[in-house]
Sequence to fold (319 residues):
Amino acid sequence: MSSILVTGGAGFIGSHLVERLLHKGNEVSVIDNFNDFYDPEFKRRNIANLGRIGDWQLYEGDIRDEEFVSSCFKAGQFDEVIHLAAMAGVRPSIKNPELYGRVNLMGTLNILEGCRHFGVGRLLFASSSSVYGNNKKVPFAEDDFVDNPISPYAATKKSGELMVYTYSRLFDISAACLRFFTVYGPRQRPEMAIYKFTERILAGEEIEMYGDGRSSRDYTYVDDIIDGIMKCRESRFEYEVYNIGNSSPIRLAELIALIEEKIGKRARIKELPMQPGDVERTFADIEKARCAFGYEPRTAIAEGIGKFVDWYKMERASK
Fold:
C-alpha cells in the first residue's frame, strides 16, 4: 500500500483519481486551495463522500506557499506524488498570465522541491495537449516539436515538463509527464465547452460557437484519463512523456449536434470569431502509452456525451 499525494485532488480529474486510488486501498492525501476560478462548492461536493471509500487526508492550502507545501510533505511522508494542481484554461491565461506563471511554474517548483527534500521517488505531472500548439502534423506524437506554444497556459505546461525533467535527472526521481487531451465527463469544470453547451441548450439559451465549427478536439472521457494515470503509475520509467487521449477527434459542429441529439433539443447558435490562443485541432498519437503500459481508451464520444448529459440532469435535479 502506497502513501500518495494528489495535488488538485478536489478538482474534476483529481477527485475521480482520488476515488480510484482509495478503492485500490492506497493512503491518499490531497492538496487543494478551493480557489474561486469557479464556485468552490463544486469541489467540496466532489470530495464530500470520499470518507465512505477509505481514509484520506485533506491539506487545504496553496501550492504557491512554500512553507505550506513543505509542511505537507513533512507530515505525509509520501511514496509518490501525482501533481494535477494548476490554473487551467487557455483564454483566462491570456487575460492573467502572471497568475498562471505563479501557480503553474512556482507552484510546480515547490512540489518538486518537496519531492527532492523529502525523498519522494516517483512523480506524475499533468501536462496538456496545448503544448503542441498549432502542430501541422497529425496525430500529435510525444517527439514532435513543442517549442511554439500559443498561450501562456501552454507555455507553463511545457515549462513544467522541463522542470520535471531537470529534477528527475538531478535527484533520481522517476517522473512521467502526461499530456491530457481535452478531458470531459461528470464533475467537469462549468466553463468548459461541453458543460456550457449542455447547460444552455437545456435552458433554451444561445450558445457561442467560436469559428465556423470545423475546429476539432480529441475529447477524452475522464474514466479513460484515470485508467491512463493508473496504468502509468504501475509501470516503470525514469523520465518519460506520454499522450493520454482518445485518438479520435471530432469537429466542433459535430460535437454540438451530438449534444443536441442526446438532449433532444436544438441549439440556438451564435457564431463568433476564433479566440486568441485557441488551436485549430488536437489529435493524440497514443501508441507510446499503449506499448509502454497498455493504455487503451474505451469510451467513444457518443457514449461519453450521453453519460455527461445524464449526470448533468441528475445534478440539476438535485439542487
Notes: Residues 97-117 form the longest helix (21 residues). The chain has a mean pLDDT of 96. Residues 130 and 241 are 14 Å apart (CA to CA). The first strand starts at residue 3 and ends at 7.
